[in-house]
């Protein structure tokens, strides 16, 4: 039987596991940020969420949108759109036997870029801060996809 | 050569595979629910989707939004935002050699919480039903992330 | 120690890696398509994004929505909603030791259907082109989920 705990002795895979866990935890933080702004600004999407703030018509006034809440939601969706490809391509790339230092460089750049993207989106920092962070993360994922397809294409 | 079918003899991994398949199938059901409400309520986002209901201006009146459709879409997006971290962190956690009964407890709680979350969102049940379901799933994923980083951190 | 590079000698897994990398790269292209339409049509969601097009009130007029941009965003979200289940279920299915030609048929159908879905959404082609593409991809994922649960259920 394959000793699975041995899979975790592979350094590239362990590094991938660590960086992925960090970047996914960061993404999960966006849910808390959304909830925080919804509660402090009393901005809700569902009638049952603001039932505690009043009855009938009085509560309905909290069913509205808010710039800050929408900003956090866009940042969250952008995370999803970029972290899902990293998750899939990064996992397969890690299993394809890349050089350890190259792999870690990819993971560090991606995680750093996504954390900076969130800071740039939520502050907000002037462009091109956010665009730059986006394209670094994007480029890292494409670079891993390229190496994977170059060495292991099987259609 | 690694006998991959042996990977599936690892009980934690098999349990992860089963629960993940169930929770992803549940998430896929949300697409059907959206399509159902769009068709029965004649609420569409694309002109080509309602071309069969009339011509020209007559069809355009179906390009609208609807509370129930938006509710299903929010539930679907919330699924994505929470199941993606579970997928990534849960896979790595399963490979890190956790205790079988602890792992199964995590998976069961998560899948149960997400199914209850959908019921609470679509019925809708009064709060804090949905919030509670959300935080149980969220806590399970964080707990797996914590155990993973504590035992296998490699940066 | 498990020789991970051997995992990539498994043909089903290599095929999964190749098709997944292609379909995820296709999904990443949607970000570029959104950015392209936002820039050429001057349609932005964030004030800092259109700061270069004018000052104060002059720039604010670009904070608007646009049919074409919203269409690309819907196509992108639909990709996410369908590729995430394929990623999770497909990975586990690949590891469950399926027949090579059956597995490749599943992967090819899925990737082809999702590429056709994007073409049908962005052109746009009349229905039922997009609906058909959606249901082929959906059926492929369900078929893999069914085989996985039938052979490896462990709850």
Automatic annotation (TrEMBL), chains A, B, C:
Domain of life per record: Eukaryota
Mode of membrane association: Multi-pass membrane protein
Principal location class: endoplasmic reticulum
Reaction(s) catalysed (UniProt annotation): RX + glutathione = an S-substituted glutathione + a halide anion + H(+)
Any single GO CC term annotated in Swiss-Prot or TrEMBL for this entry: mitochondrial outer membrane
Keywords noted in UniProt: Acetylation, Endoplasmic reticulum, Membrane, Mitochondrion, Mitochondrion outer membrane, Transferase, Transmembrane, Transmembrane helix
EC number: 2.5.1.18
Keyword Transmembrane helix assigned: yes
Transmembrane stretches, start-end: 12-37, 83-111, 131-149
InterPro entries per UniProt: MAPEG-like_dom_sf, Membr-assoc_MAPEG, MGST1-like
Subcellular location: Endoplasmic reticulum membrane; Mitochondrion outer membrane
Gene3D superfamilies: Membrane associated eicosanoid/glutathione metabolism-like domain
Gene Ontology molecular-function annotations: glutathione transferase activity
UniProt keyword 4Fe-4S present: no
Primary role: Conjugation of reduced glutathione to a wide number of exogenous and endogenous hydrophobic electrophiles.
Summary of subunit composition and partner proteins: Homotrimer; The trimer binds only one molecule of glutathione.
Protein family membership: Belongs to the MAPEG family.
Protein name, per record: Microsomal glutathione S-transferase 1
The organism of origin for this protein: Ovis ammon polii
